[in-house]
Amino acid sequence: MIDKHLPLLDLHRHLEGSLRLESLVELADQYGIGLPASSIEGLRPYVQITEPEPDLMAFLAKFKWWTAVMVSPEVCRRLAYECVTDARGEGLDYLELRFSPYFMAEPHGLHPAAVVEAVIDGVEAAASENDLPVGLIGILSRSFGSDIAHLELEALLRQRDHLVALDLAGDELHFPAGLFSEHFRLARDSGLAITVHAGEAAGATSVWNAMRQLGASRIGHCVEARTDHALLDHLAEQRIGVEANLTSNVQTSAVDGYAEHPLVSFLEHGILATLNTDDPSISGIDLAYEYEVAAPAAGLSADHIRQAQSNAVEIAFLSADDKAALRRRAAGRSQCG
Q1: Residues designated catalytic
Q2: What's the domain count of the chain?
Q3: Full-prediction pTM beyond 0.90?
């Protein structure tokens, strides 16, 4: 169902949830980190979603074993390098990859600034070698609170020129947007674009606050916007991008199933909604799965899917010239094919 005449983008993918199972096993063995199983297949129930979890926080608990192997900046660099290389293998034309420096640093007491430098180095090396443009998005992990978020922000802003945006992720229900308004003011002042996880575990008010208090021009997930018609109108009228993640939303029980996902209604409302993977290693998917399996299961027609693919180009954190280059590249590829 992917339209070969259009560029293929993933705008909402977490580095921490996009790692190779083979690397997890290898690194755990190399550094003497005990895992609940020693084989890839034995590990799957512990590190991947095998059936829907009761809520977002249960989903996030799967990250425990992935971050357990992030023992050094060198390992973080390797994992970032592999993540981008794998994205190119999926046929992506552009990737926006997000990561939380403190979330990666905390298990082994690394400095967030060292993690940021390592991730940038790994991403940029793989992007160059694979001819895959990558926009890096820094995350503030709301679950650690405001003070830690300032530490993360400081580490990210040191490398401002290597980032395209700032995000807020984590425990949305207990750490609302207002706690981080100053952080995001500083980020906006630095010239970073803003995308925020909202409307996934909390209601429509969380989406309003992401825009009003943090300055978000894109919203990750945004499922609960379905309950507020004024919000749907605002998203469409203000051209706010929506980074939809179908399989992830089923797995976190944000929706009861694919057929209950509001993505079709978002698209038909004129909202710039898109298809993305979120945490492909944890969800056990890739972007092709979201287009070819999840999207039809959610009721998207070929026209809906094509619109979502086109929307991704429109809302990407890229210049007009870079977007035009992506479109030309896809058009040229389709002609050759």
Answers
A1: 200
A2: 1
A3: yes
